[in-house]
Design goal:
158 residues, alpha+beta, Immunoglobulin-like, four-stranded antiparallel beta sheet, 3 helices, 7 strands, elongated
């Protein structure tokens, strides 16, 4: 009987598992004189036997090695127990140094970007920050289209 109680205690008191956020892809939603908009498609896995909630998401975007800033979003996405949940994150970033980014794009067909994010996930008593990262590229034509909206009369560059 003592072995049964110890086994119940050992398996019944396991540590909660940190959710996993896996960015799958990102789509450009806007590229204007003001900045860049991306929609990041993620899959969130809650491997626990209890539900959690994503309360806030923060994403820092870097394009061609230049920091475009931090996007902060409130969320109320429920993560049911032992389930994968799709999550889309809308990132908005001002260009900051569009001229420098365009200069880099002249010699590169695809411009590298990186998103470093964190989601505040929790329940009633415990909240943790769950990190995630996405690295990919943007086609040069998107940046050049944004540049032509900044400088009227700029011929389209290919």
């Amino acid at each position: 009987m003592l072995i049964g109680i110890l086994a119940l205690f050992a398996f019944g008191c396991s540590r909660p598992e940190s959710p996993r956020i896996t960015p799958r892809s990102a789509d450009v939603t806007s590229a204007t004189a003001e900045g860049l908009g991306l929609r990041v498609h993620c899959l969130v896995r809650n491997g626990n036997s209890f539900g959690l909630t994503i309360q806030r998401v923060s994403v820092r975007l870097t394009l061609a090695g230049r920091d475009l800033g931090l996007t902060e979003l409130r969320s109320a996405l429920r993560l049911p127990p032992n389930t994968d949940v799709p999550m889309d994150i809308d990132v908005r970033a001002a260009w900051g140094d569009l001229a420098g980014i365009i200069a880099i794009s002249v010699f590169n067909e695809n411009i590298p970007y990186r998103m470093d994010g964190s989601a505040r996930v929790g329940g009633e008593r415990l909240n943790i920050d769950v990190p995630f990262t996405l690295e990919s590229t943007l086609p040069r034509r998107i940046l050049l289209g944004a540049a032509s909206s900044v400088v009227p009369g700029l011929p389209p560059l290919h």
